[in-house]
Design a protein that fits this description.
single chain, 327 residues, alpha+beta, five-stranded mixed beta sheet, globular, binds 6-O-phosphono-alpha-D-fructofuranose
Length: 327
């Protein structure tokens, strides 16, 4: 992973040593989380932690363990000014006087953790922003637009442990090599085909969807005899990392729109540590990432746990969905 990222930076913007060290710390945290996930059944930690997170969701023990690992490893990086975690209500300030050049790391330590007790893929999602000036620690100081991200990525704990990252020079996929412990390059220059015949959505929410989303899915389901003139397939992993990894690997479109069931919260998925990092990855791989009405990364944050409508993947398909929203 380091060799690939260094080569890209050396050939373009110049090597950013502080960022490289931070990416290594994140990779270390993900290796440690992978180990705990893979041994979870023997440690009796696949169950609920009897606590709730800021989202009001019952935390799995591994949610809490994964967050603690991230805080311990990434929080110890001397250039990290703040950590923003899905599992923690307040911003975790690591410096009393954050300086220009320091990092803010937004992360979901174990996304999709409801899949843990049924042994399906889960992952860790992260987003990195560099402060442009010294700041005074305050919640609004970390409400930074997704377009300001300098790096993003996720680890996926599936049949193998993968790490997919971007530092602004495209997207590369790595696989953990148990023998060496390294993340070796296995999916260089990941690219999303502009067209697709595969959509991902929780179809049980059909009656809650707004009209543009229902129109789009109805047309997909009508297949070759419908207005789209082609057959569509559907996949839904209930793990954003797994669905996005499939889309980065073979194309597709992922939708978790705001609907009448979650409109009061602004949607389901979180902007700062789910939608923005996945949005950067998808755009860096040639795809598109939209709320239905505009680019996700252009959304001006008003809170570090705010939720947003997410439509991302193959560029041409996202454009079709946006056109229905505009109509
Ligand atoms: P549903 C996991 O809880 C998550 O945040 C995403 O990883 C995933 O895409 C979505 O929620 C699944 O939601 O409604 O299918 O349980």
């Amino acid at each position: 992973m380091t060799q690939t990222t260094l080569r890209q930076q050396f050939q373009t913007t110049g090597v950013d040593t502080d960022l490289m060290i931070l990416m290594e710390d994140i990779a270390t945290a993900c290796r440690m989380i992978a180990d705990r996930v893979r041994h979870g059944a023997f440690a009796g930690v696949l169950g609920a932690a009897e606590t709730e997170n800021v989202q009001g969701e019952t935390q799995k023990e591994l949610d809490v363990i994964s967050d603690e690992i991230f805080q311990e490893i990434v929080g110890a990086n001397p250039n990290v000014a703040a950590l923003v975690s899905e599992e923690v209500d307040d911003v975790n300030w690591r410096k009393v006087a954050p300086q220009a050049g320091d990092f803010v790391v937004y992360y979901d330590p174990l996304d999709g953790s409801s899949n843990l007790d049924v042994n399906l893929s889960v992952g860790t999602i992260f987003s990195i922003v560099r402060l442009g000036a010294a700041i005074t620690p305050a919640p609004e100081a970390v409400q930074i637009k997704g377009t300001d991200q300098i790096a993003a990525g996720y680890a996926i704990y599936g049949p193998s442990t993968g790490l997919v990252i971007t530092t602004g020079h495209g997207v590369d996929g790595f696989t953990h090599h148990p023998g060496s412990g390294e993340f070796l390059l296995t999916q260089p220059e990941m690219s999303i085909p502009s067209e697709t015949q595969e959509f991902a959505i929780n179809a049980s929410r059909y009656d809650l969807w707004d009209a543009p989303v229902r129109q789009y899915i109805d047309e997909c389901l009508r297949g070759a005899n419908g207005p789209r003139g082609k057959k569509f397939n559907m996949r839904w992993c209930a793990s954003m990392v797994a669905d996005v990894h499939r889309i980065l690997t073979r194309g597709g479109v992922f939708l978790y729109p705001k609907d009448s069931g979650n409109a009061g919260q602004g949607g389901k998925l979180r902007l700062m540590y789910e939608a923005n990092p996945m949005g950067m990855l998808v755009e860096q791989a040639g795809g598109a990432s939209s709320t239905g009405y505009g680019r996700i990364m252009e959304v001006a944050p008003t809170g570090h746990h705010q939720r947003v409508s997410v439509i991302l993947g193959s560029r041409d398909e996202v454009a079709v969905i946006e056109s229905y929203h505009k109509d």
